[in-house]
Amino acid sequence: MTERQVLPDVDLESDDVRDSQGRWITDEYAQAAAVHALASAGPGRPSLTGTKATSPQVTFRVTPELRARVAAEAERQGRRISVARDALERHLAS
Fold first, then answer.
1. Residue 25 neighbours by CB under 8 Å, 6+ apart
2. For the segment 39-53, what is each residue's pLDDT rounded down to a tens digit?
3. Is 24 helix (H, G, I), strand (E, B) or coil?
4. What is the mean pLDDT of the segment spanning 23-33?
5. d(Cα 73, Cα 58) in Å, to the nearest integer?
6. What is the DSSP letter of 18?
């Protein structure tokens, strides 16, 4: 997974904080940026079909040990547990 860095809080009224364009970030700027980011974000993850259609889901049960192995492999690859989808595709292709 992507590693995120937690930065210390800043006081936008007294600290000189700038964006990548060199513009001063104020409380109003930060609020507008948050509204824009939320408006731009679509619901959920992108479809696997390449269209706006919802991707079908398959649900099945596994042992706790297999679930742990899949989670460990996903972590090792820096991915989500969707590595299971890749494994299923490889199995069916063989």
1. 12, 17, 18, 19
2. 877 667 777 777 777
3. strand
4. 90
5. 20
6. B
The domains of the chain are located at: 27-93
The pTM of the full predicted model, rounded to 2 decimals, is: 0.43
Residue with tokens 């996903």: 74
Residue with tokens 């904080």: 17
Half-sphere exposure of 72 (CA within 13 A, CB side): 6
Residue 15: DSSP 8-state: S
Q: Is residue 41 packed enough to be buried (19+ CB in 10 Å), middle (13-18) or exposed (0-12)?
A: exposed
Q: In sequence order, what DSSP letters do the residues of 29-85 get, joined into one string?
A: HHHHHHHHHHHHPPSSSPPTTSSSSPPP-------HHHHHHHHHHHHHHT--TTHHH
